[in-house]
Amino acid sequence: MRPGLEHKEPEPGALLVSVLAQNEELALAVADRLEAEFGPLDLSSFWISFAHSRYYEAEMGDGLGRYILFFSEPMARELLVEAKLFTDCLEMEYAAGGGRRVNLDPGYLALEHLILASTKAVPHRPYLGRGIYADLTLVYECGQYIPLRWSYPDYSSDYVRALCSDVRAKILKLRKQGTWRV
């Protein structure tokens, strides 16, 4: 970097991981492993039925549900790639019979947006490195998180967007106290 050129690092985000699983018991076991890696949970969704899509049924069976877990510790945004690589390994640990039993999607919530990590390349996902792409899922406008035309239906729901707003309020409070940093 040339002298005098310093770029400001963005504020950290709140790490979240979506745990899609065949049953709550399995999802909670995976949540324990995630807490061991990423620290304590701050907030969890209730068990959300995954009935709006059959995308995972062939691999994981039917009757799927998910928890969306928000972690307490702020996360430097550039660590999203590492979080996704860890969750991909964890998926393989829990795999059976050649298929996944859990699908884990990490991301981060920032004041301005929600980003998920993905291994799928599509036009709206910029490449981050090591096979991982950023999926801009929600943007914060006019006092609320707004879904985009490609946002998944569960993340577009009023319930999940309200969870994000609750976490955003906590971030603002911690920021005001000077404790939202890595």
List keywords for this structure.
globular, 182 residues, 5 helices, 31% helix, 9 strands, alpha+beta
Q: What does the average pLDDT come to? A: 96
How large is the share of residues in beta strands? 25-35%
Describe the global form: globular
Whole-number total of structural domains: 1
Task: Give the N-terminus to C-terminus distance in angstroms.
Answer: 23 Å
How many beta-strand runs? 9
Secondary structure tally, helices: 5
Along the chain, the helix and strand elements come as: EHEEHEHEEEEEHH
Overall radius of gyration:
17 Å
Main sheet characteristics:
9 strands, antiparallel
Helix content: 25-40%
Low-confidence stretches: none
Structural class: alpha+beta
